Structures are given as structure tokens and as C-alpha cells.
């Protein structure tokens, strides 16, 4: 008898891949999860728990884990790729022989490839040439998703079929899937907010207050949207779940790995110690260099990313950098209504600058 359930594959055995596989299974799909670690795959199938990445959460027992890529992708209609950005292209290349153009491919990875400043869905496009490609992003801390905390996300694609299929496959009573068509903006939002989560963790460790956190998050949003719009994204995307939504959660929670790296740095640990202690991926560490370089190249004003880069890689103490940033140009609150140039012009007339 053939299996009538939607056929879902998840590539990645980390915390988010595991949480996602379980949602799809909760929602009635037949789910196969690929991970490179054969022992962990066997362990998941035995105990229905990912002891390495989400040890405290039971997975839906219908998820079948395997390190055999062919088996996982055989018959899959919907393929989620939850692999850290630095390994993303390699894994897609491994998967390529078992993929076909009827499939829907969705990246969940919030990072950027250094070579060419590529986002993950662009890598999916380059490696496959398929048309059903999307990005899943939003305020989705994996352990909260695994705990079935009420959560929402965005599926962004210019392909209506991709949006609808993902909404059907994942939408359930604890996970809502909103649709968007600015794939580039949604994907950039997910990658950029990691930078500011590191800064927020650092500020918390330094004992800075709620006013400071609020300023940091709001100016981060201004900076993220300025950057994204300069690269062609829609500014309105940043008022959505994948913009301000994800920024709030990652800048406020110790469950965010990027926040935790920032917190450790604020406590005086070195970057190497902070990353080592985490033992999982914190995409923001790499993203901050890529974004800072890109901003310099394109002439985009990014004082927070620039300052964080100097703290992470230039040896500038975080508190000193915060003070320097406070003395920076006092400009427009919302640049989409009042331009930075207009503010500068008025201040020039006042003789202030
Ligand atoms: N965790 C979260 O809360 C969320 C994460 N994301 C995004 O999801 C992406 C994946 O993150 P997440 O699941 O959290 O990551 P984790 O750090 O929890 O796990 C990483 C996973 O990727 C695997 N991996 C790493 N390198 C390779 C490789 N070369 N080949 C095959 N597998 C590899 C690891 O395998 P191994 O154990 O063998 O090293 C592990 O299964 C990230 O970009 C993140 O931004 C998005 C939303 C929420
Ligand atoms: O993207 C996330 C939540 O939406 C997870 O953030 P971290 O990668 O910082 O853990």
C-alpha cells in the first residue's frame, strides 16, 4: 500500500533540523531526517530523542533518521535544508544526485557564504536550477519549538506553490506559518539579526539596562533594513516576523547561541573560548565580518556592525566601543520618513556639524 502522507525530508541533525522534523511528523507527514553521524541517527531511531542537540525534548517517533542521503531523499516532495552556512553548499552538492525539479527546496539557515556574499537560497538555486525554492525564517528558537511553545514563522518565496505547500506541511496548533514573497529580505533578516544578538548579549553581561537594550535593538533594526534595502530587499519585510520578530527573540534570550556568545564575551572570555564553550553554530560571528566588509564596499553606514567587528576582531573593549557609539552622529529615527541627509543638512545650518 502506498504512503499517502506528505513526504518530507530534512537535511541536518542539529537542533533546528530536529525540531522541524518533529513538527512535520506531528502534522502527519512521513519524515526522513539526514545527518552525517550514523550513531546519532541510530540513537534517534531508538530513543526518539536527539541526545546531542536537543537532549531534553522527545521527538515525534515517526521521524526516521538516517545517514543515507539517497534513502532520505527518495520520494521526498518537500526538502528542508538546516545545515550551517559554512557546510551548506557541500551538503547540497551531496544531495544533488537524488534531487529532482518537482521537489520544493527550503533553506532554514541564517547565514551568508563568504564567496560572493551568497545567501543559502541562492546556493540552492545555483546548485540545482530548480524553481520551487523558499526560505523559512522567523523567531524560532529550536528548543522552544521542540517544547511546542506557540510559535510563528515565515515561508518566503516568489513561488506560490512553495509557500502553500510549506504552510500545509508545517502549520499546526503550536506552529503558524505566514507567507511572504520577499525571499531576499526575509533571508537577510535572519542572517543580520545574529550580529545584533551578539551585541545584545554583550550589553547584558556588562550590566546595561533595558533602555540600552531597547536602543540597541531599534537601531539594529534601522541598520539591518538600511543594509537590506541598499541590496534590493523590501523595507516592509523588516516589520514582519523574520525582521523585527526574530531580532526581538535573539536579542532577548539566553537560548540564542549568538546572544550567549556575546554574553560570554561581555564576561571577559575570548572569542575562541566563547565559541568553544557553545559547541554549536553561532552564525553571527562569521556574518559580522562579511556584512562589515560588504557595507564598506557598498558605502552603507553600519556603525553597530562596524563597532562589533572591532570588539570581536580588533581587541577594542566592548564598554569603550559602546561609549564611542554614543558619541556618533545623531541622525534620523526612521530614515524611510526623514532621510539622514536632511538631518545632517539642518544640523549644518545650525552650525552643529
Ligand atoms: N537552533 C535554532 O534555534 C535555529 C537555527 N536556525 C538556523 O539553522 C541552521 C542550522 O542550525 P542548527 O540546527 O541550529 O545547528 P546546530 O549547531 O544545532 O547543528 C548543526 C548540524 O549541522 C551538521 N553539520 C555541520 N557541518 C556539517 C557538514 N559538513 N556536513 C553535514 N552536516 C554538518 C551538524 O552535524 P554534526 O553533529 O555531525 O557536526 C549538526 O547536525 C543555522 O544556520 C541556524 O541559523 C534557524 C532557526 C532556529
Ligand atoms: O535564529 C534563531 C531563533 O530564531 C536562533 O538563534 P541562534 O542561532 O542565535 O541560536
TrEMBL record:
Q: What class of enzyme is it?
A: oxidoreductase
Q: A single GO BP annotation from the record?
A: glycerol-3-phosphate biosynthetic process
Q: Which GO terms describe its cellular component?
A: cytosol
Q: A Pfam family for this UniProt protein?
A: NAD_Gly3P_dh_C
Q: Which residues take part in binding sn-glycerol 3-phosphate?
A: 110, 138, 193, 246, 256-258
Q: Where in the cell is it found?
A: Cytoplasm
**Which residues participate directly in catalysis?**
193 (proton acceptor)
The chemistry this enzyme catalyses reads:
sn-glycerol 3-phosphate + NAD(+) = dihydroxyacetone phosphate + NADH + H(+); sn-glycerol 3-phosphate + NADP(+) = dihydroxyacetone phosphate + NADPH + H(+)
Where does the signal peptide begin and end? none
User: Which residues does the record give as NADPH binding sites?
Assistant: 15-16, 36, 53, 110, 142, 257, 281, 283
- Glycerol-3-phosphate dehydrogenase NAD-dependent N-terminal domain location, by residue? 7-159
**Positions contributing to NAD(+) binding:** 12-17, 142, 257
In this chain the Glycerol-3-phosphate dehydrogenase NAD-dependent C-terminal domain maps to: 182-322
The protein's job, in short, is: Catalyzes the reduction of the glycolytic intermediate dihydroxyacetone phosphate (DHAP) to sn-glycerol 3-phosphate (G3P), the key precursor for phospholipid synthesis.
Cite the NCBIfam families for this sequence.
Answer: PRK00094.1-2 (NF000940), PRK00094.1-4 (NF000942), PRK00094.2-4 (NF000946)
- Official protein name in the record: Glycerol-3-phosphate dehydrogenase [NAD(P)+]
Source organism per entry reads Modicisalibacter muralis
Question: What lineage does UniProt assign to this protein's organism?
Answer: Bacteria, Pseudomonadati, Pseudomonadota, Gammaproteobacteria, Oceanospirillales
Gene assigned in the entry: gpsA
